[in-house]
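Reviewers of the previous submission asked for a worked example of the structure-prediction workflow described in the proposal, so we include one complete record here. The input consisted solely of the amino acid sequence. No template or homolog information was supplied to the procedure at any stage.
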Amino acid sequence: MIRFGRFAAGLIVCLGLFAALTVAEPPRDHTPPWADSLLEQVKLAPANAQLDPKRWTDGGPYRLNTFQRCWDDWRQIDPTARAAGKDFLAAADSFEGLIATAAPLIDVKPLPAAAVPQPEELKEPPADAALSQAVIELQAALDKPLTPEQKKDLAARIKAVPPAVARAAAVLLEAMPGALKKRNQALAKIGGPDKLQAAYDRARGLALDYTVDADTLKLLRDVDLTALVQGGQELAQAMDRAAALLAKPPNDRFEFAWDTPIGAISLNGAQDNVYGAGPYLLIIDTGGNDRYASGGATTSAANPISLLLDLAGDDVYEAKDGPAFGAGILGYGFLLDFAGDDVYKADRLACGMASFGVGMLLDRSGKDKYEIDRLGQGAAFFGVGVLSDLKGDDEYHCFQEAQGFGGTMGCGVLVDREGNDLYMADDTKIRYPSPQDMKHNTSLAQGCSFGRRDHPGAGNSLAGGVGILIDGKGDDHYQCGVFGQGVSYWYGLGMLIDLEGDDSYEGVWYCQGSAAHYGVGALCDMAGDDTYVTKLTMGQGAAHDYSIAWLHDATGNDTYECPGNCMGFALYNGIGIFWDEAGDDAYKTVGAAFGATGETRPESLCLGLFIDEGGKNDFPKDSRAKPRSTWTQPPNKDQPLSYGAGIAR
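From that input alone, the workflow returned the following structure tokens.
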């Protein structure tokens, strides 16, 4: 049955698919304007200034095509990042558009655009009849058909529901049998219902601890990721249609409740409501200052779908532990909050998080505060996890694996369209001490991908996924410990893209466009007077061990500060690139920087490049970097393929 709102949804779907294709295939004219002239200084051509493709050794399966394209040719990094920033921001108010944009990044083909219905096809039955029929058909699809007495009871209860809410609920319930069919197709090799709990536990364990055993590896092989994501996309299309139907929320006070075999349906009005642990299949709340426990928009082995739409009010979403609030583990969790100054708080596995599923949180407006210890705020393994916030001065707090984090075959995205925002990966309370420096946390946040690196030959290594943080407008502050702000480790792609505003970045080690051990990390800031501070080392375009690091600042009067091993630096056969296009900039460092390399292996390329294309620049007095000059670090006999070069115009 075709519902009202598909015209807008069809347009959103088309835009989302266009965006997805843009991200999947960035512009082919991708050579930076300085590449030829700078590389000529060290007698390299751009096509040859690449990592050694023969160095693919025991990285494990599940390397993603988007990562490999950037690893094979660093000239692809900038257009890939800029396309991702543009397209995710364009799709930020559409669940379907966000999934369609994310899916190609994990090698999944999204569903084709939904057909836009003709006006004569949009003849609605009465709203109460539509909702009643949707519940009846869902119960039948779950092999729990309603009796005549139950149907009468259902019809009587539905009379309390305002028409707009009833129609929106019907749209969502109608989409569920198709999504469940896709999910069942995806999980067909797992076995019957008695096997789902064990599969759920393995999916949860992979996310929490990167637990890998024979059963987990079999689960990765057996699950059809395309079918799983496409099932989520069907629900996403329904969420967008329901949101259009609820554009003018009713002010009524009402209550409706119905239990299904896979969770409760709860439709409530403008009163302040409290929602317990659930499980809930569907919540629509039209107003009031509400409180939600972990049962909202979260899945379990027995409850594979959970949808939550809150239309107004200053709401509190608080769970001691996850999954919660837009979390999809072995299923689909979607949360849409229309308005209000909201608080989202959970220990872990929450707020746009997925493992073998799709988990999404979309908050349209308000000054919101997000708090999590780890694994959320746009984090994913083997699926899609997205947090999208459209406007307001927001705060994002985490400790680890959050704010755009991608694990194996996962695309984790945090996109914030506008506002002066705070992104904090806490480094004051030490919960996850870093091997690099035990006085700091390992953050793995703010556009980070992280793979599982095992001993060569063990067979348990797993490539990282794609982790992206995108901020559109506003003066923002980013803070992390070790590994954050456009960073990657082990065959993954991590990107931070900030398009406008005077921003400040603060990190410790491996941050601000850096990468280690076969990763690709990038930070692209497109406008504003920005400040970058790396407290210890390996930041601002620094790469280690067959990785590629990229920092690109397009405009503004910027300040860069790092003790050393930064600003276009590489060691052990990495490629580190720093590019500041314009503005009067200040550079503060005392160590290796400005297009330099450190210790490396003699058998393959190691490359550090520094480019400042314009403005009045302030370099350290004892530095080889000088305004309006070019400099090189030529190879030596022990490291014949190690090159460094810099230019300040």
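Residues 420-455+464-649 form one domain. We consider this example representative of the routine output the project will generate in years two and three.
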